[in-house]
Design goal:
The complex is a heterodimer of chains A (367) and B (129). Chain A is α+β, with helices and mostly antiparallel strands. Chain A folds into two domains: 95 residues, Phosphorylase Kinase, domain 1, CATH 3.30.200.20; 219 residues, Aminoglycoside 3'-phosphotransferase, Chain: A, domain 2. Chain A has twelve helices and nine strands. In chain A, helix 5 runs parallel beside helix 9, helix 7 packs antiparallel against helix 10 and helix 8 crosses helix 10. The longest helix of chain A has 27 residues. The two termini of chain A are 19 Å apart. Chain B has one domain. Chain B is elongated, with a radius of gyration of 19 Å. The chains are: A alpha+beta (367), B mainly alpha (129). At the A-B interface, helix 7, helix 11 and helix 12 of A face helix 2, helix 3 and helix 4 of B.
Chain lengths: 367, 129
């Protein structure tokens, strides 16, 4: 991406923002790209707003969809920036620690790409830093459970979410179809993936309650400052699904950053995370369903890694990081098989810790 | 005609030099990129050196299911095609439900062996001890 905000587009952005925030004048200072945007572009901006209800100086993030439209992204799982903004508003309105949404723009004449602006949060996001702690971070795990419980109060009836797609059959089978689609012919060439898909089909739970899921709720996608949660980020995969999907994803080995003894995101034991969830969601955690969705998590991550690798190999976006993410497949498959094996045996396998940097370490992210 | 040093030998000294002489002096802002390069070089080294070995291990794993002898004489493209053909067959059988009710133990053993063989190239630190 070239510069989104330049001498030419800045006045357009400022006058659009003045209209959107009811101000007399807005000045935008561009402070550069923020990390953590494997799919979206995140720009740090400071808004100086004169007049109107939001007058004052605001540290913000401008989040854009590179390539202009929803379908242009190589990442099939992501929603459009307008939908993401609606999700952010719903989450923020439900009391979730999502960054405060400020304004969204779907007019390509302004920056040439869909984008929205949200308040910038402080803190550390990089997974390997977040999990670094002598003692289990039980309070943080519990708080993340509470946050997820609040988010799951939103659903298809929540105002503003009308534009989000509804699962066709059951959320589980919908996921299987999506993963198969993303994997393409690899589902007929890689027997581990073929078995993962089949396993998910045979064990699919019947359709139940549909809630607003984050779908990338994990360590590495929230910010922590002084041990406390400041913001939950990366809402671009959000959608309606089985509530247990987010819990399975959060607890998957892939997001423990080496702290496999702390199954809830490398922070603490599952019990703290589950307890926080039950406090606010008004529903019980179903460990068996979470285990199903953890299998789905490995398959989803495998399919996403394949898509990321393809973004590189297709020539669309040459990138060492994307290329290495594609090469993470055997590692994800190992976790998948280990998990399925464990479900059969209910035995705990010894932890193998991999410290090799790969395509998904999010090392540079400080938002 | 064999060039000397050959590709593997050249790559080996490139990777060593990068790790020993450059990596310690990379500024923090570029360190992650440098580590990714070192990681990628390692993958290429292991793949060049061990792709046939991994192929034979995968063939042996698939032989658990198909009982065919794991032909040790195969190498290079022939070996790869043989492994691909058997994996394709297995994928079709799995999708058709052939392992829904029985044979899962042998299937899991086969799949675990296949993943171990591929991990030996992609990330050997994760191999079971």
């Amino acid at each position: 991406m070239g510069a989104l905000i330049d001498g030419e587009s800045r006045p357009r952005l400022e006058s659009w923002l003045a209209g959107a925030t009811g101000a007399t004048r807005v000045a935008v200072a561009d402070e550069g790209t923020l990390g953590g945007g494997a799919i979206s572009l995140n720009l740090a901006v400071t808004l100086d707003i004169d007049g109107g209800p939001q007058a004052g100086r605001h540290a913000c993030v401008l989040r854009a969809q590179p390539g202009g439209g929803a379908a242009a992204s190589g990442m099939k799982a992501s929603i459009s920036k307008a939908q993401e903004y609606a999700v952010l508003r719903a989450a923020f309105g439900a009391g979730v620690a999502a960054p405060e949404p400020i304004a969204a723009c779907g007019d390509p004449a302004v920056l040439g790409a869909d984008f929205y602006i949200m308040r910038r949060a402080e803190g550390i996001g990089a997974g390997h830093k977040v999990v670094k702690a002598d003692q289990p971070q039980r309070a943080l795990a519990r708080e993340l459970g509470r946050q997820l419980g609040r988010l799951h109060k939103a659903g298809p009836d929540t105002p503003g979410l009308e534009g989000l797609p509804m699962p066709a059959a059951s959320p589980a089978l919908d996921c299987v179809h999506a993963y198969r689609d993303w994997l393409g012919d690899l589902a007929l060439r890689d027997a581990v993936l073929a078995w993962g898909l089949r396993w998910l089909e045979i064990h699919a739970p019947p359709p139940g309650e549909l809630v607003l899921c984050h779908r990338d709720y994990r360590t590495g996608n929230y910010l922590v400052k002084d041990g406390g949660l400041t913001a939950i980020l990366d809402w671009e995969f959000a959608g309606f699904s089985d509530p247990m999907e987010d819990l399975g994803w959060f607890c998957a080995r892939s997001w423990r950053f080496g702290r496999h003894d702390r199954e809830a995101g490398g922070l603490a034991g599952r019990e703290d995370f589950y307890a926080g969830y039950e406090e606010t969601s008004g529903r019980r955690v179903d460990p068996q369903a979470v285990a199903y969705w953890e299998t789905a998590a490995y398959m989803r991550w495998a399919a996403i890694a394949v898509l990321q690798g393809r973004r590189h190999t297709s020539g669309e976006e040459p990138s060492l990081e994307l290329a290495l993410t594609g090469r993470m497949l055997p590692e994800i498959e190992l976790d998948l098989l280990r998990h399925i094996h464990g479900l059969g045996l209910r035995a705990s396998a010894p932890a193998a810790v991999g410290a090799e940097p790969s395509g998904d370490a999010d090392e540079e992210r400080v938002a | 005609m064999r060039t000397s040093p050959d590709a593997q030998e050249l790559l080996s000294i490139v990777a060593d030099t990068f790790r020993t002489d450059l990596l310690p002096h990379i500024p923090p802002a570029q360190r992650y990129t440098a580590l990714m390069i070192a990681n990628a070089l390692g993958i290429v080294q292991r793949e060049l050196a061990g792709v046939d070995e991994a192929g034979h291990a995968m063939l042996a794993a698939l032989a658990l299911l198909y009982g065919e002898d794991a032909d040790d004489s195969l190498s290079g493209a022939d070996l790869r095609q043989r492994v691909e053909a058997l994996q394709h067959r297995l994928c079709i059988e799995i999708a058709a439900g052939d392992f829904d009710h029985e044979g899962q133990d042998v299937l899991m053993e086969c799949l675990e062996e296949i993943v171990q063989a591929r991990l030996g190239i992609a990330n050997p630190k994760l191999l079971r001890g």
